[in-house]
Amino acid sequence: MKLKSKGLLILILILVMGLMMAVPAYAADNTEATEQAVALKQLGLFKGVSDTEFDLGRAPSRTEALVMLIRVLGKESEALNGSYSHPFTDVASWADKYVGYAYVNGLTKGVSATEFGTSNANSDMYLTFVLRALGYNDAVGDFSWSEPDTLAQSVGILTDGVDTDNFLRADVVLVSWAALDTNLKDGSQTLSAKLMGAGVFTADQYSQAQQTAGDINTVEPVEPATTYVVTDGVASVKSLAELKGALADTAVTEIEYAAAFAINEDITINKPLTIIELDVSNSATLTVNANITLGGVDFDNTGSIIVGEGGFLGVYMSDLINHGQVTVAAAGQMEMDRGGQFNNFGTLTNSGTITVTGNGGSLKNETTGTIVNNGVINCTGYYDNFGTYSGTGTEPVGI
């Protein structure tokens, strides 16, 4: 009897160990994946079965992987508001517009002429989708769609926590979150900067999402720097710390640069700012909600400049060289006048008003540049386009 009991105990232990081994690897990374899922949801890039439950322990379907691709491309609104068709008979009605958009735009093909496919998406499929969103092209040999792991690891989207053998929705989250902080193939900006430029989410929303995901530690606010000189309400600043201090100082109504310094932290300009005959640069997210006047300045942007509602960016006898993203929002304005030049190597997105005057104003879109104009470009000055132009707004002619 004792032998039978002992044998039964051994059998139970074997079964328990087997069940433990069958638990997906997701369980070990539950906290990280869940935090990042909540952060992606804050940005409108990921949805679950509720506000707090994301079904992360389940394998993603081909359709779910495709929808995620369209979201990280910043094209969800375009897909849902458009009229796109497809030849597939196995697509759920809720996914019709997503699949139609992807089919028309060549993002994916079905498993046959009439079937999109209802199987699960594996890691090769999703990594290929995200690499394409970053600008890599398997059709020209950047990587192989059946072996994307090497490139995915080198660019940083295939992190140690991703299980490529048992690919779950948790792994979709880990890859997608890593992609946001990854540079596009051309090096002009990160995917998150591109999405901010397209209006998918704002810099503040991204910062909040980073805190949710645990990428940024919440710190106690630092007292603003007060070493700048204030004369009749005008603060002369010599550093980024002084600029931040002056922006928060109720005694300051206007700000001027007194020395050249770089902007390498996200910042919002909410008071008139003047920069005269100094070389400056921006590698962060610079949000312009007041007037910025550049006079005799070489301004190099590798980050994101967002001219928001009530914002005005005046470029006078200055060169604004954009290798990143410049966005003029619907109520924003930018002007090139009196020898002001805008040379675009990155992306210029306009939903507001851009003025290029005949008084020496110049707008030049270089071969690597992209202009998306859904607003108004009033141009009586110089305009040259060697890159890509699109949008609903009329392309300027220039002189």
What tags apply to this protein structure?
alpha/beta; single chain; 399 residues; 2 domains; seven-stranded parallel beta sheet
Written account of the structure:
It is a single chain. The chain has 2 domains: 30-182, no CATH class; 260-390, no CATH class. The strands form 3 sheets. It has a 9-stranded mixed β-sheet, covered by helices on one side. Strands 4-7-10-13-16-19-22 form a 7-stranded parallel β-sheet, with helices on one face. A 6-stranded parallel β-sheet has the order 6-9-12-15-18-21, with no helix packed on it. Helix content is 29%, strand content 22%. It is an alpha/beta fold and 399 residues long. It has helices at residues 2-22, 30-42, 62-72, 76-81, 96-104, 123-133, 149-155, 169-180, 191-197, 203-212, 240-248; strands at 229-231, 234-237, 254-257, 267-269, 273-276, 279-282, 285-288, 291-295, 298-301, 304-307, 312-316, 319-322, 325-328, 333-337, 341-344, 347-350, 353-356, 362-365, 370-373, 376-379, 382-385, 388-390. It is built from 11 helices and 22 strands. Residues 8-29 and 218-225 have low confidence and may be disordered.
